[in-house]
Amino acid sequence: MQYARLNGAKVINASYADTSFSQAEQDTINTLNSAGILLIAAAGNESTDNDQTPSYPASYDLPNIIAVTATNQTDSLAGFSNYGLQTVHVAAPGVDIISTYPPEVSVLNANFEAGTAGWTLEAPINRTRPGYDSVWSLTDSPGGNYANNLNVSAVSPAFDLSARRSAVLDFFLEGRMLAGDILLVETAENAGGPWTSRRVWNQNSVTGAWQPFDSGISGDFSSACHAAEVKLGSPGRKIIGLFPLPFPDRCQRHSGRLLLGRRSGFGIRHRTGHL
Questions:
Q1: 28 phi and psi, to 5 degrees?
Q2: What domains sit in the chain, N to C, each tagged with a CATH number?
Q3: CA distance 60 to 87
Q4: Cys-Cys with 267: which of 83, 109, 166, 258 at CB 3.0–4.6 Å?
């Protein structure tokens, strides 16, 4: 929800439900209300009356929530869907729906299992074991701690997004950085630059919440692999990916280890159409 709010969303779809009340979730949705954002929430799939047994987030008593139940092909209540005279507001088709959601296509994918062909790596960046759901990953410090006062980068092969829409860069990262050390994700239209730093969203491995980093990722990510995402949007042009790892200070072993990919590896994905 924070991700959507910070990226200018005016309507958020919440296609999930749970019977457990969460004060934190209610406070977050109330923040959306203050920002003029609607939350369209599923009524739930337990075939119960939400007036008697609340289902969240649909049942939070907030003015910006619209709770939606499901109907079938005869415009009757779907047998699995929750309902509620006071707490469910509208109904929408929810049985055997043919989606117009366009498929995802991978433009660039690399998991480093077969090496680093096509990548330009500044020493000492190299492959290391293990990877995320794979044998190999890419690291800035294959031999231990990264060196002081040294900026290094890994540049991906070029990828063409000129005919693409809603492109997203996905990768996983693991490592630890001290104050002043950052990991940047930058893109450029030409191999020589100029390079533009991109906002990176990092997902908390425990809470699932997404946190934006506008000036490079910093902090401790050594406890687990963290999902990260960069929205490249619809640039309509050729993009060169640069993933510099500037660590000018010191850190613990395997600091700044960057595990690139979405399970199978580093990847750029996009949609083949738009709604």
A1: -65, -45
A2: 2-93 (no CATH), 104-271 (2.60.120.200)
A3: 9
A4: 109
187 neighbors 268 (Cβ within 8 angstroms): no
**Environment class of residue 5 by beta-carbon count within 10 Å: exposed (0-12), middle (13-18) or buried (19+)?**
middle
Q: How many other β-carbons are positioned within 10 Å of the β-carbon of residue 77?
A: 17
Question: What is the rounded distance in angstroms from the CA atom of residue 233 to the CA atom of residue 203?
Answer: 19
The tokens describing 77, both together, are 């209540």
pLDDT by 10s per residue, the chain, length 275: 988 999 899 999 999 998 899 999 999 999 999 999 999 999 999 999 999 999 999 999 999 999 999 999 899 999 999 999 999 999 999 988 877 766 677 777 777 888 888 888 888 888 887 766 678 888 777 776 667 777 788 888 877 777 777 778 888 887 777 777 788 888 877 777 777 888 888 888 777 778 888 888 888 877 777 788 888 765 444 444 444 333 333 332 223 333 333 332 334 443 333 22
Return the residue matching tokens 């997004």.
161
Q: What is the pTM of this model?
A: 0.57
Torsion of CA 133, 233, 239, 106, to 10 degrees: 40
3-class SS at 51? coil
Q: What gap in Å lies between CA 233 and CA 238, rounded to an integer? A: 13
- Between the alpha carbon of residue 261 and those of residues 129, 207, 248, the distances in Å are 15, 21, 25
